[in-house]
Write a structure and sequence with these properties.
With 392 residues, the protein is an alpha+beta fold. The protein contains ten helices and 19 strands.
């Protein structure tokens, strides 16, 4: 994820989130400078597992689709069944290319007069240009990219419902997945009269999670109030630990036009009973004839010791016992729950079996043994291993 780049973009919450960490380490992804860590990745990880962690996701794509043909547009453009949407609900769907490859996996929130399209980090312009390309002259649909004028927070951890109840007087504990509502904010005199935020329940890492979308002013206020109620900022390093443990693919690593939904393991966002959409024929054919070339899987060292942190890196190749190239690493991190390094990677179908052993091509001619793991690494019942874990 780390890039060297000039003219970096920053979240509208950058100043307030940056104050939460002295000499805040940063990383750059898709032209955005992001907080790498605040109080340390292990503390932040444990907040997401045991308390409340707050991630600034303002760099993640946020768009709107409005006018009368908006649902029909999503129906013909993406993999899931938009006819099932109603105000207050939502769904995951994938915008795919004509060859069935992934442009982006998105969350659609259905509001009374528009659809909110929440996409991946740095994908706002790409999604907007894709929509514009496929909006035809007679279509009654309007796309807007509001990424740069909107702020977004993601909340993770078992204390999420209690914190939201205390700050916003809203009980999300009984909400269904992707249920959402516009919540008025009246507590702060610094906010404009009638200020509202959009609050949604989302899938997390096995713990309660929520997404909040609003103006920079509204979410700056909310950030401060959540911190007062025990919330801890979550940096990208701890986020990667959680994401990889949960087996969640990320744009630019496991998601992108190199892969299709079958390979990425996100087929739950695909309807096989709806009508035609862009890429539908290819995706259906892959399902019918079992022509999937590779699968996203977990990868874990068989042995422990020095050298893994340097070797288990994105791009590293995986070799079979017959010296054939069997796959490659896409993401890697230290897992506090498993007390060791773990990775995600694409494995060719011939070798994609949980428990199978491959060899990681390390520096020089070294090959280190690894085992394939069915995702996720960490289930809902597993919690942080302990307070005395140190990073290698």
């Amino acid at each position: 994820m780390i890039e060297t780049q000039t003219n970096l973009r920053h979240s509208p919450l950058w100043r307030v989130t940056n104050r939460e960490g002295a000499d805040l380490p940063t990383m750059v992804h898709a032209g955005w400078e992001l907080g790498s860590q605040y109080r340390g990745p292990l503390d932040e990880y444990q907040a997401a597992r045991q308390g409340l962690a707050i991630l600034d996701q303002s760099a993640w794509a946020c768009l709107t689709l409005s006018n009368t043909d908006r649902l029909g547009f999503v129906q013909r453009m993406s993999t899931n069944d938009a006819t099932k949407l109603s105000p207050g609900g939502g769904m995951k769907t994938i915008f795919t290319t004509p060859t069935g490859r992934i442009l982006d996996e998105t969350l659609i929130l259905c509001q009374p007069d528009q659809l909110l399209v929440v996409g991946s980090l740095g994908m706002g312009a790409a999604l907007f240009n894709w929509f514009r390309h496929y909006i035809f002259f007679r279509d009654k649909v309007k796309a807007q990219n509001i990424t740069d004028t909107t702020a977004r927070l993601a909340l993770f951890g078992p204390s999420t419902p209690a914190a939201l109840a205390a700050v916003l007087d809203v009980d999300v504990s009984s909400w269904s997945l992707y249920q959402h509502a516009d919540i008025p904010i009246s507590e702060s005199a610094a906010l404009a009269a009638g200020s509202t935020i959009t609050l949604a329940r989302i899938a997390g890492f096995g713990e309660p999670a929520a997404s909040v979308i609003g103006t920079a002013e509204s979410l700056t206020w909310l950030w401060g109030r959540l911190v007062e109620h025990g919330g801890q900022p979550l940096g990208m390093r701890a986020y990667d630990m959680l994401r990889i443990e949960a087996g969640i693919p990320e744009q630019g690593r496991e998601l992108g036009e190199e892969y299709n939904p079958h390979e990425a393991g996100i087929i739950d966002a695909v309807s096989f009973s709806k009508g035609c959409y862009i890429g539908q024929e290819v995706i259906a054919r892959l399902d019918t004839y079992q022509k999937i070339q590779k699968h996203l899987m977990g990868i874990q060292p068989v042995t422990t010791g020095a050298g893994w942190a340097e070797s288990l890196q994105p791009g590293a190749k995986l070799i079979s016992s017959t010296n054939q190239e069997a796959g490659f690493i896409t993401s890697a991190a230290y897992s506090p729950a498993l007390a060791g390094p773990i990775a995600l990677g694409y494995i060719r179908t011939k070798w994609a079996e949980p428990g199978a052993e491959l060899r990681l091509q390390a520096q020089g001619d070294n090959q280190l043994p690894v085992q394939l793991v069915k995702l996720p690494f960490v289930g809902e019942a597993l919690r942080v291993a302990g307070d005395d874990v140190t990073l290698p």
